[in-house]
Write a structure and sequence with these properties.
- By secondary structure, the protein is α+β, with helices and mostly antiparallel strands.
- It folds into three domains: 7-113, Orthogonal Bundle (Butyryl-Coa Dehydrogenase, subunit A, domain 1); 132-249, Beta Barrel (Butyryl-CoA Dehydrogenase, subunit A, domain 2), CATH 2.40.110; 257-405, Butyryl-CoA Dehydrogenase, subunit A, domain 3 (Up-down Bundle).
- It has helices spanning 7-36, 46-57, 76-86, 93-96, 103-113, 116-127, 255-291, 303-337, 339-363, 375-384, 392-405; strands spanning 132-136, 153-157, 160-171, 178-187, 202-208, 214-220, 233-244, 248-249, 293-294, 297-298.
- The strands form two sheets. Strands 1, 2, 3, 4, 5, 6, 7 and 8 form an eight-stranded mixed β-sheet that branches. A two-stranded antiparallel ribbon has the order 9-10.
- The protein is globular.
- Bound molecules: flavin-adenine dinucleotide.
- Flavin-adenine dinucleotide binds at residues 102, 135-138, 143-145, 169-171, 222, 233, 384, 387-391, 393-394, 397.
Length: 408
């Protein structure tokens, strides 16, 4: 039985479920066919733009943004069940609704910390779904789960900043529509010392894609996939990239704090979508189990298969409640007050959903690892979320330290 949400959420859920049935699921095959004919694999299939137009006309647009003026004005608790539904088709549905990462996090940063000029130039076209964006923090040379390691330099030179560094796994950057990068680096004068507080050395700056010196060098793979729908995950090199000082977001040294603010909602959105992925896996498992016979009876009658399905259902129900509790806490006591729960869902959800997807792959036999079912690609996407936005171990360390501190 479904959880009962407030009237507005229920109404949006009903409309979104219909949108998925009528438009998104049928578009999955069409998108694959159109992608095969594109001049570049990084271009966007026509059907994705059609889905965006349809979703927008139906008011299913920018649901992630709590501000009623710019977004749908939903709380985290209201958005959670909607994001879950989009997770059932993660390649198309979040983009169709203009609710896809990393644009959502970037729009939140611009909305919260951007100047009026930055909002006009970059937030407005992002909210309109006219352009895409990327967030560039991780670097191949240093352990980037520790943001204080970041080596990219952002050096003030007169009225400009000059940026030098190398980034990788920058999601979305291969898409030619990705026009703006939020780059995280260390600010310091050319010969000046770093700030004494290691958490006050990082800053974020806006770098337009067409700035001389910015090179999108190559697409990194994810278990062999290139994630075309997400605009890939690029290696990006910045060599003497010069942008006006007005492109800085917030103040010098404020990058660490902005990153923290950005990642709270981003993490819960990923977890909400992961639950939708798990629901899709359970559905596919059940459909396969009743339609395939081995050794004289349907797979659905094998005890081991029943155990997989039952355990998956129990896990999903537990995860959903924890995610909803976290969303409710974020709404009522803020992201800081929900810190432990945000970390808990970030640790628990990808791990559990990877396990469910793995069993769904197993149940599908050889088909499970191939392209005729979405399971292999969903598995790869879920598995990366044990790394992206901070590896499990970093969240475990921080959560455990807070827990232990209560007793010393
Ligand atoms: C598909 C995908 C998309 C991504 N998109 C983006 C993006 O858009 N922008 C961006 O900037 N980055 C992105 N990333 C990068 C991601 O955020 C980083 O991979 C992550 O933060 C870890 O940094 P790292 O890879 O340098 O690993 P490292 O920091 O080198 O860590 C490696 C491992 O060391 C262990 N470890 C680290 N710290 C601790 C600790 N304190 N205790 C115990 N063990 C520890 C963990 O097991 C960890 O996995 C993406 C990654 C993937 C896979």
């Amino acid at each position: 039985m479904d959880f009962a949400f407030d009237a507005r959420t229920e109404e949006l859920r009903t409309r979104l479920l219909a949108f998925m049935d009528e438009h998104v699921y049928p578009a999955e095959k069409t998108a694959q066919e159109q992608r095969a004919l594109l001049a570049s694999p990084w271009d966007t299939p026509r059907i994705v733009e059609d889905l965006k137009a349809e979703a927008r006309s139906q008011g299913l647009w920018n649901l992630f943004l709590p501000d009623a003026g710019h977004g749908a004005g939903l709380s985290n608790l209201q958005y959670a069940p909607l994001a879950e539904i989009t997770g059932r088709s993660p390649q198309l549905a979040p983009t169709a609704l203009n609710c896809a990462a990393p644009d959502t996090g970037n729009m939140e940063v611009l909305f919260q910390f951007g100047t009026d000029e930055q909002k006009k130039r970059w937030l407005e076209p992002l909210l309109a779904g006219e352009i895409r964006s990327a967030f560039a923090m991780t670097e191949p040379e240093v352990a980037s789960s520790d943001a204080t390691n970041i080596e990219t330099r952002i050096v003030r030179d007169g009225g400009d900043y000059v940026v030098n560094g190398r980034k990788w796994y920058i999601s979305g950057a291969m898409n030619p529509d990705c026009e703006i990068f939020i780059v995280m680096g260390k600010t310091a004068t050319a010969d000046g010392p770093d700030a004494p507080d290691i958490r006050r050395r990082q800053s974020m700056i806006l770098v337009p894609r067409d700035t001389p010196g910015l090179e999108v060098r190559r697409a990194m793979q994810v278990y062999g996939y290139e994630d075309h729908y997400h605009g890939g995950h690029a290696e990006v090199v910045l060599t003497d990239v010069r942008v006006p000082a007005e492109n800085l977001i917030g103040e010098e040294g404020g990058g660490f704090a902005i990153a923290q603010a950005r990642l709270g909602p981003g993490r819960i959105h990923h977890c909400m979508r992961l639950i939708g992925m798990a629901e899709r896996a359970i559905e596919l498992m059940c459909r396969r189990a009743v339609s395939r016979t081995a050794f004289g009876k349907p797979l659905a009658q094998q005890g081991v298969v029943q155990n997989w399905i039952a355990d998956a259902r129990v896990t999903v129900e537990q995860l959903r409640l924890l995610v909803l509790k976290t969303a409710w806490l974020m709404d009522t006591v803020g992201n800081r007050g929900a810190h432990t729960e945000i970390q808990a869902i970030k640790i628990a959800t990808p791990r559990a959903v990877v396990g469910i997807l793995d069993q769904a792959v197993q149940l599908h036999g050889a088909g499970g690892v191939g392209q005729d079912f979405p399971l292999a690609e969903l598995w790869a996407a879920a598995r990366t979320l044990r790394l992206a936005d901070g590896p499990d171990e970093v969240h475990q360390r921080s959560l455990a330290r807070r827990e232990i501190k209560r007793y010393v």
